[in-house]
Amino acid sequence: xxxxxxxxxxxxxxxxxxxxxxxxxxxxxxxxxxxxxxxxxxxxxxxxxxxxxxxxxxxxxxxxxxxxxxxxxxxxxxxxxxxxxxxxxxxxxxxxxxxxxxxxxxxxxxxxxxxxxxxxxxxxxxxxxxxxxxxxxxxxxxxxxxxxxxxxxxxxxxxxxxxxxxxxxxxxxxxxxxxxxxxxxxxxxxxxxxxxxxxxxxxxxxxxxxxxxxxxxxxxxxxxxxxxxxxxxxxxxxxxxxxxxxxxxxxxxxxxxxxxxxxxxxxxxxxxxxxxxxxxxxxxxxxxxxxxxxxxxxxxxxxxxxxxxxxxxxxxxxxxxxxxxxxxxxxxxxxxxxxxxxxxxxxxxxxxxxxxxxxxxxxxxxxxxxxxxxxxxxxxxxxxxxxxxxxxxxxxxxxxxxxxxxxxxxxxxxxxxxxxxxxxxxxxxxxxxxxxxxxxxxxxxxxxxxxxxxxxxxxxxxxxxxxxxxxxxxxxxxxxxxxxxxxxxxxxxxxxxxxxxxxxxxxxxxxxxxxxxxxxxxxxxxxxxxxxxxxxxxxxxxxxxxxxxxxxxxxxxxxxxxxxxxxxxxxxxxxxxxxxxxxxxxxxxxxxxxxxxxxxxxxxxxxxxxxxxxxxxxxxxxxxxxxxxxxxxxxxxxxxxxxxxxxxxxxxxxxxxxxxxxxxxxxxxxxxxxxxxxxxxxxxxxxxxxxxxxxxxxxxxxxxxxxxxxxxxxxxxxxxxxxxxxxxxxxxxxxxxxxxxxxxxxxxxxxxxxxxxxxxxxxxxxxxxxxxxxxxxxxxxxxxxxxxxxxxxxxxxxxxxxxxxxxxxxxxxxxxxxxxxxxxxxxxxxxxxxxxxxxxxxxxxxxxxxxxxxxxxxxxxxxxxxxxxxxxxxxxxxxxxxxxxxxxxxxxxxxxxxxxxx
Length: 902
Description:
The chain is of the alpha+beta class. Helices cover 24% and strands 30% of the residues. Strands 22, 23, 27, 28, 29, 30, 33, 34, 35 and 36 form a 10-stranded mixed β-sheet that branches. β19 (277-286) and β20 (291-295) form a beta hairpin. The model is unreliable at 1-56 (pLDDT under 50).
């Protein structure tokens, strides 16, 4: 074995570039440390004493509430986080001030808060003077004596009393189809220093100032349980106002608030349902220090828009012959418009939307346009995605154009909705599923895209009532989703792995619209199990914590007094019966725990701890024997379904274990003991009922049953090898054969790799025979299917655990749950035969972690990057043989081996 290793260790560097035998390498390494041991002890003592700091660049990536420079937050104790570029932070000082210039000149100057500690901690909670509403705060971090740049956060409505505006609706009712316009004209005479628009809505809105759209968000605000919590959004509109005449324009859409078409989940009967409404304050600060607020009140004007119908499921209908030019600009004559009507707020809780918003992410051009005749065209946008289509068209006045969106084509080439529209009743009549309808005015080239809708699709069929000429240049697809930063990267020499990783990312983001959903076309529902099954895949690949925090608040809004939740969150009331089983509702426990693991931030656990306890306590009261007999089970299974009592009880055990660990984290000793006892009761009952000592199988020995028992830690140590061997046998007999549904899908790769069979898991994930994930790729899928046979939704994420496994099982980037947030990394890469190049990286709280290898000239070169202030224990496995184990400090490391492992 030869080795090349760059040691970047507290400023000392040494490269071993010459080939040595193993004894010589050991001697060199031992001498290296022996010669410097006294120096290291002295250095550590000086560091701990605060006498030495590293000559390092300052802290970077300063964030408040996991967002860069947010405005309009309302948390009185926001979290402040940062990264460092040195290898070890030994101390920090945070200064918060309302005086930015003073903060630049002197990091000791603070009129708000200063916190100093000798610590490696890189996130703290603000505990200074009470934050005031509508105030911008500046802050910086001094790490190891080096000051960072200046970051900021700005407060919004810190209390309900800070709102001045009334809630407005039109003069219609909830059955009136056209979307309402609202407008307000006003004049400003003084010099404007700053201006903020604060707007809350039940439904959806588009906001305009002086004719121009405000912000780059779409589909605001995010969907909540409207009668329990509403979100407001803050915009900096300083540059959009002017001295003299100004005008505000607002369009309201139905969103999830006012379902005028029916679907399977009874949103048309939701307890909150009503005509869309909104409340707004435009707060303007002048150069003389005075403040003026333009608020919603009875003087605002309203009328019907040219959007004659809009529905989350059906689509959007627009009559361009009814378009009112200039309605959102100053000087428009609105004397014939009605006065808006004041109503009560939809709920008592109007809180900040503190998360990454939905935005337009990319524009897709069609790969083909098939013309059937001069009134029927089908566009193929090349891949499945979530978003809208944008059409540019010329046609005669009154021409009706329909845009039908789907994931499949019939054999004759027309768009086929049969896999996604079966929950949408035909009785909706004039409101067809996933179809936008546009009526041309015929006076110009017209451009149309819906404002209050999104769909999941690859194909668009455009039909018209009169002949039109269309080609690939007339239509685009607009990719939309919550604009969360990408946190993970992957590349490899295996095309199936690359395709699977991209498909999983496409499906994950297609199902991230302010909350995690199951599919972007058929349902758009926040199914709890889908979120729990995909949370690791999501967090390895994307910085999604703000979306999950919002969704967990939705869960708390939905929780009943006994602790139970519906199967979908938010919910109209549907899903509390029959869909609220432990294998689905455990998301309430699993998601906060995973957030803590990935970020080292315990706020989600703290916020949801009581809700988690209520839920698990209810299970304990309902199922005193430790086993749960009800559940939705291993959905989308192929042949035999796993025993529901086994799968549900495995989730129950996981919940008890997470609560035990969480109680320990928070120092709740009595709770820790309580859930320790509960977990032991479940495990004992589970093994007594389901383990068969004669065959060393759980249940019937199905792949889901054995893999879940292994993955969730229910198998005693003495039996693990035997159960794992049976799992391997069931996979390899007759070829690499998958026989799992969604629950087994989550467990099987992890169960194999965690029990010494990474090679089997790798071959399984690369298989392209039916059924497999690779089979989907072989048949041209660009997202993940709901079912193995690809006959239902083609854009689901709950089968996507393999993407997280790429990071864990192959790249080996594993979390140490005792030191989470990748502060300490359990680095266990596995280099299988035949995979010549593979690299994963993840941007965690401390920076970039990289693990990967390449094969050159009969040698395998492995590279690891450990971010500043972190550490890792490396156990590198080359084709079933552990070839090196070592402890890594921050830096870049290169290891080289012969390809045969020697």
